[in-house]
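Quick log. Single chain, no ligands specified.
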Amino acid sequence: MMSLSIRPFTASKFAAEVSGIDLTKPLCREQIQAIDEGMDQYGVLVFHEQRFSDETQLAFSRQFGELEFSNGAELYKERRLQQMELADISNLDPAGRLRPATDHMRLTALGNRLWHSDASFRAIPAKYSLLSARTIPGTGGNTEFADMRAAYDTLDDDLKAGVADSITEHSNAYSREQIGIPKAEYGEENQIKLKPVRQRLVRYDSRTGRKSLYLSAHIGAIVGWPIPEGRMLIRELIEHATQRKFVYAHAWRQWDLVVWDNRTTMHRARRYNDLHDVRDMRRTTIRGEGITAEQTQEAA
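-> predicted structure:
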């Protein structure tokens, strides 16, 4: 008999703790379905004491769909982790040493402190992200999650109508430009990966019947809007969507696994002393099931 149980953290039922299950072992169909249904209801699920190896994390993740390849370090031809489906969310270089203050990968990773949705810069954006905490810092390094369904629900009717059919352009380069990383630094061979892709600003979930804002630091424009006006609206929407009442802040424990739905949440990392403390997190990402908006020929 399945002993899995889900307990919400807040009265709003955004984010919940799951117990009674060992994710390092193969799951039965009922357990997979219960996790999927929990994701539909809460958007963020927290599992404690999941002592993954890289192989068992990959095996667990594959039970929920096709895995994406990491889009980070390969832009610089550096990898610490051998499996391309594992994203290295750490402050360690390929030799396992702390990255120094001026290291380009360290500086690029600071963009993770902006509110974003993983892989929204891909024509088919991500479904779930699954982040495993292997080593955590002494203080800081929390991850915050924002409820994009509640954010949409609380927009006024005029604004809902105004953004109902809006299309946005997303690029990994735009989010990094916000912290001073120029597009040229990725190298000529990677420029095609930085071309903007189009996403709907409001997404509808046929499984739950709910709508959500689809926001991210990767947004650089609203199609058909003047750039300044579009960026100001996106900034205002992010400010609205990240009010404290919409946010769950996760304080990591070693061997936590947190799974979140990129279609209905945003997230950001928080500051810690990354020049002194190791923070070794490993993320797998489930590929989405289709495009949200028609692409231009260049982005498709």
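Residues 227-241 form the longest helix (15 residues).
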